[in-house]
Specification:
By secondary structure, the protein is an all-alpha fold. It has six helices and no strands. Helix 5 packs antiparallel against helix 6. It is elongated.
């Protein structure tokens, strides 16, 4: 009697694990890489949009204003898609999983809940490339060329984080729409990193040290 009971219990455990990973009808489950990517990238994109609005409102040089406009439109639209996926998959936008838990063991260690300090932005700061509250304050207070330089430095690092997260997803998922979005982010943000690096050099400045392992 005990052996059949153990087998049944084992099957139930496997079924529960499969549900968390794959959800209903084969859709991504709550702890899947796809769900984690969508949630974390929605938060990541929200900060990029915030920084782009901050520099746009300072009436920067036309090339900076154009870049900010492109970031606002592209990343706001992509963020809407991430949240739409979660709704389609019948998953919540919030989760008890720590940021980047979906990439744990694949190039990024997830931090334990509460490990990040308030000075570095709490949970969101554990995502690669995120600006801290202090850095955002400095961007709000800066004006003129110093504001443009700081925006470019922060956004290059932010884009590098987005590329890192998207490349991580590409190694973990085969789901068409998610893989396609990750590829677009890698391509688009890599191109913008080059553009922003050139804009920095024209202002006599350099990016922060790269957070990408390949660089």
């Amino acid at each position: 009697m005990r052996r059949p009971l153990l087998i049944v219990c084992g099957v139930l455990v496997l079924a529960a694990a499969a549900f968390l990973l794959f959800g209903r009808d084969g859709t991504p489950g709550d702890t899947s890489a796809e769900a984690g990517f969508a949630r974390d990238m929605a938060t990541h994109h929200a900060q990029a949009v915030e920084m782009a609005f901050l520099i746009r409102d300072k009436r920067p040089a036309p090339e900076i204003a154009s870049l900010a406009f492109d970031i606002i439109n592209t990343q706001a639209n992509q963020r809407g898609m991430f949240l739409g996926w979660l709704q389609q998959w019948q998953l919540t936008q919030a989760t008890d999983q720590p940021p980047m838990a979906w990439m744990s063991g694949h190039g990024h260690a997830a931090a334990a809940p509460g490990a990040a300090s308030a000075a570095t932005g709490g949970a969101a700061a554990r995502m690669p490339g995120m600006a801290s509250p202090d850095e955002l304050t400095k961007l709000r207070q800066a004006e003129g060329t110093p504001a443009e330089v700081l925006f470019l430095q922060l956004m290059i690092r932010h884009h590098e984080g987005g590329v890192q997260m998207s490349e991580g997803l590409l190694g973990l998922s085969t789901r068409g729409e998610v893989v396609s979005m990750a590829q677009k982010i890698v391509s688009g943000q890599s191109g913008e990193i080059k553009l922003m690096t050139d804009l920095l050099q024209k202002r006599g400045a350099q990016p922060y040290p790269s957070i990408l392992k390949s660089q």
